[in-house]
Amino acid sequence: MVDFIVEFLSSTGYIGVFLLMALENIFPPIPSEMIMPFAGFVASKGELNVIGVLLAGTAGSVAGALPWYYAGKLLGRERLKRAAEKYGRWLTISPQEVDKSISTFEKHGKTTVLLGRLIPAIRTLISVPAGIAEMPLLTFLGFTTAGSLIWSGVLVGAGFMLQKNYSEVAGYVDPAAKAIVAVIVIAYFYRLFFHNKGKENL
């Protein structure tokens, strides 16, 4: 994966940065913590402009978030509630909890989208609840762009400063991403167990 990213970016430049960051948001296993630091390293050598790299990465990240946003919008509140009613045992959520969750997102959605774009493993999927809650597109784009710009800036800056040691960035970010995924999985099984327990007691 690393060799592919290095070769692809070396031959495609800004377009490659845009495409890989778009794919990274659509297909999370492609790691932004390898894409942008290497792009920052290339910029440090003068082969690319650091501002151009930052803009290309941010634009790609926003473009990759849109399919998830529209997927959430297509799913919608009512379909999600029907799914919760039918498959609530496995989704560990009831139709009432769907309404409550969406109401909470409607109140704090802007902050959630902004901060969610800064968290590995969450930054891709945060677009889905925004679509389900029907956050206005321009609002979604604004806060997604802001969060993506910050995230890309941190990674590009790290690659620019570390230069040939740019790959060390992944060594710090990757464990955090795995820890977040582990917490999500544990939380799911915890809710699954107690959700079913509650149903049995009733």
UniProtKB/TrEMBL annotation:
Domain VTT: 30-159
A single Gene Ontology CC term: plasma membrane
Keyword vocabulary terms for this entry: Cell membrane, Membrane, Transmembrane, Transmembrane helix
Residue ranges crossing the lipid bilayer per the database entry: 12-30, 50-71, 137-163, 175-194
UniProt KW Nucleus keyword: no
PANTHER family given in the database record: ALKALINE PHOSPHATASE LIKE PROTEIN, UNDECAPRENYL PHOSPHATE TRANSPORTER A
Descriptive protein name: Membrane protein DedA, SNARE-associated domain
